[in-house]
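[Meeting: bench + compute handoff]

Bench side (C.D.) handed over the final construct sequence. Compute side (W.E.) agreed to return the predicted structure before the next meeting so the bench team could plan truncations. Sequence as handed over:
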Amino acid sequence: MAASIAPEASRRDLLAPIRAQLPLVLLTAAAFLALFGEPIRLLIRDWWSDPESAHGLLLAPVSVWLAWKTGRRADARPNVGLGLAMLIAAVLLRYVSGLAAELFTMRMSMLLGLAGLTTYYLGFRQVLTWWLPFVLLGLSVPLPEVVKSAMTLPLQFRASRVGAALLDWRGIPVKLTGNIILVPGHQLFVTEACSGLRSLTALVALSILMGALWLSTVTGRVLMLGAAIVTAIMVNALRVFLTGFLVVFVDPKMGEGFMHLTEGWLLFVVSLALIAGVAWVFSWVERALRRAPAGAPS
């Protein structure tokens, strides 16, 4: 079922157990900040300073808003045992990752801690009800460097190959060497920043959000995610092609600086429009399929 927005009464109910146990809640919040304050600070720093992680500035507030709007389940009941087990696991994971100075695991332990607190106060069913906010929070955590490095190079090569193929199709003499594209009088270097990983991460998160809000079937949401991945890869290859085309036929400065950055943002907006269009089409198909049995002859 698509994510629903809870009425105001449900949101007031969400605060009821907090008000009933306010001293314990405040103590818990203080302990959580003491334990996870450093990962939170470093995460916000990366959101603010690292372009590859900036989508977290959007995803984190949206996650909180969605949890608030969804509200508390009518049958929410504390699950102290499971909640404590999850919290103990989060603390151990935080300790071990702190010893290893592994930021990704440290940040994911914070997410596990939030799930443990939710389970402790409201039950595990509430965690399942808030699956979308938790998934978005998980996606806001930057990937480990080893994973980013493993993904970046193949994306660079794929964008280079497709971009070079489009340039050749357009009749421009081109020679491809790894991620270096040679065109008449110019050399285009597809850098890590041009791999498309940044737009891929953002589009995946947005496709999950759109799928949860607009679609009602697992199949539709999976197809939506696949469409986002394909769109991100193809639009980034198109960016490489347009850069080469503009450098050859318009001005070499089009491949660098402000103009190159502007081109990237414009194509990202195009990607968003395409993903929104795919979501609309899938939503229309789902509605048509739901109506079909009712209107079909018996």
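W.E. noted at the follow-up: The radius of gyration is 23 Å. C.D. will use this when planning the next construct.
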